[in-house]
Design a protein that fits this description.
Blueprint lengths: L2 H10 L2 H24 L1 H8 L5 H17 L1 H15 L1 H21 L3 H4 L2 H17 L2 H12 L5 H29 L2 H8 L1 H19 L5 H8 L7 H8 L1 H31 L4 H29 L1 H23 L3 H19 L2 H6 L7 H17 L1 H13 L4 H19 L4 H10 L1
Helix pairs in contact: 2-6, 2-9, 2-10, 2-12, 3-4, 4-8, 4-20, 4-21, 5-6, 5-8, 5-20, 6-8, 6-9, 6-12, 9-10, 9-20, 10-16, 14-20, 15-16, 15-18, 15-20, 15-21, 15-22, 16-17, 16-18, 17-18, 17-22
């Protein structure tokens, strides 16, 4: 057996378990965050009852954004230990911390029960949730990238963002189901807690899979050859500044797009006055379209290259968002069409995105570099998206404001994609596949 065949066998044998272990945490993470977004209006009434309308939503989304401010710190801590000690144990800690804090959000008393302490506790738990999530997505992407065989990294890493969308869809579907089968009074009184409480058993399942899996082949080779970096964050910041900036730029579109879609139930029900169920159906259709195009685009990037597919996706996103939002404002049928078109465009870009940023860094600092760049970008473009568009809606009274915000993020990503260079490893893999 040749060396290449041995390497391929080493990677292929635990491949399915690696996918499940990595993607389980991502699924839980985005189910958790989706739950908060879907029930934003209910949470606003329960934790900020003295406010009204968009002002209460602003307070709710401010708490949503606070958790993202902790993401870069979580990326630094989890990335450092992930590059020094290994991927598996660090990812195990991140998933149980994240799911545990989400469970506690579902158990915390509301304002009517304990007064000002309720929103304070909510902020603390959201901060803990954001800190642990800071190393989750980047670590899972690193995990998949280092298990992937040659010529398959784009598709396998794309499964991590596919799991992102599945987590969102699960949150949307569960939220929609609860809103249909429960009375408004019951939903506000205790029904909103159900998805948060589900986070703990889901997290324990993810923990089980991660504890059963071995370290990635690439990290084991780095440890065997004593090439583990003792200060990975310092190395990333000093020697890979350009790559970090590219990661931030590339993350803008996907992150703001995902959270713009996550904001849509609130936008459609509160601003455009659709029913909550109609809003969730439209958003569910958008994420369904996004999931389908992610699978196609990630596989295509293994043949066409990451840059080409991301260019197509970023251009489509720029030209689609304004017409899509116009359609959303017309009728429920046109809202479905606009939501699906926007979701599909975002998915084209997101498919190759995880592999593209993983390939910007060597094994020794991949967890740190990827997580830091992604964490900074999600703080700016992800967690702040609902807060920013709610603020713009309140100040401008222009229903197209969310679309304009997303156009800016998409142009930033388009610029970063133009400057993105395929890695040498990617070029060799493309030549081998073609």
């Amino acid at each position: 057996m040749t060396t290449q065949q041995q390497t391929t066998s080493e990677v292929d044998s635990p491949n399915r378990r690696a996918i499940v272990a990595a993607c389980a945490g991502t699924f839980v993470e985005f189910f958790d965050f989706t739950t908060y977004g879907v029930f934003a209006a209910v949470i606003a009434a329960q934790f900020f009852p003295n406010q009204s309308g968009l002002t209460a939503l602003l307070a709710t989304f401010a708490v949503f954004g606070v958790s993202y401010l902790l993401r870069p710190l979580g990326a630094i801590v989890f990335g450092h230990y992930g590059d020094k000690l290994g991927r598996r144990n660090v990812l195990a800690i991140s998933i149980i911390t994240m799911s545990g804090s989400t469970f506690l959000i579902g158990a915390v008393p509301v304002y009517a029960q304990i007064g000002l302490a309720a929103p304070i506790i909510l902020v603390i738990l959201r901060s803990l949730q954001g800190f642990s999530a800071g190393g989750e997505w980047g670590g899972a992407t690193t995990f998949l990238a280092e298990y992937a065989p040659q010529g398959r990294r784009g598709f396998l890493c794309g499964l991590n963002i596919f799991a992102t969308v599945l987590g969102v869809l699960f949150g949307v579907v569960l939220g929609g189901t609860l809103s249909l089968v429960m009375s408004p009074d019951a939903l506000h009184a205790w029904g909103w807690r159900i998805p948060f409480l589900l986070a703990l058993p889901l997290g324990l399942v993810g923990l089980y899979f991660r504890r059963k899996l071995d370290e990635t082949p690439e990290f084991k080779r780095a440890r065997a050859t004593d090439s583990v970096d003792k200060t990975p964050l310092r190395t990333a910041v000093r020697q890979y500044r350009r790559q970090l900036l590219v990661v931030v730029g590339l993350t803008a579109l996907g992150t703001s797009g995902m959270y713009l879609l996550l904001f849509m139930p609130t936008y459609m029900s509160k601003v455009l006055h659709y029913t909550f169920s109609e809003s969730l159906i439209a958003v569910g259709a958008a994420f369904g379209a996004c999931a389908c195009t992610i699978l196609v685009a990630s596989a295509a990037s293994d043949r066409m290259g990451r840059r080409m597919v991301m260019l197509v996706g970023s251009v489509l996103s720029v030209v689609t968002v304004v017409p899509a939002f116009w359609l959303v404002q017309q009728s429920f049928t046109s809202a479905l069409s606009g939501s699906i078109a926007l979701g599909a465009a975002i998915g084209v870009f997101c498919g190759p995105f995880p592999a593209a940023i993983a390939e910007l860094f060597p094994t020794a600092i991949r967890f740190s570099g990827l997580s830091l760049g992604y964490g900074v970008a999600t703080s700016v473009f992800g967690g702040m998206t609902p807060l920013a568009v709610t603020f713009l809606l309140e100040r401008t009274h222009n229903a197209m404001a969310p679309a304009y915000f997303f156009v800016v993020a998409a142009i930033i990503t388009l610029t970063a994609t133009i400057f993105y260079k395929e890695s040498r490893e990617r070029k060799v893999a493309t030549a081998a596949v073609v």
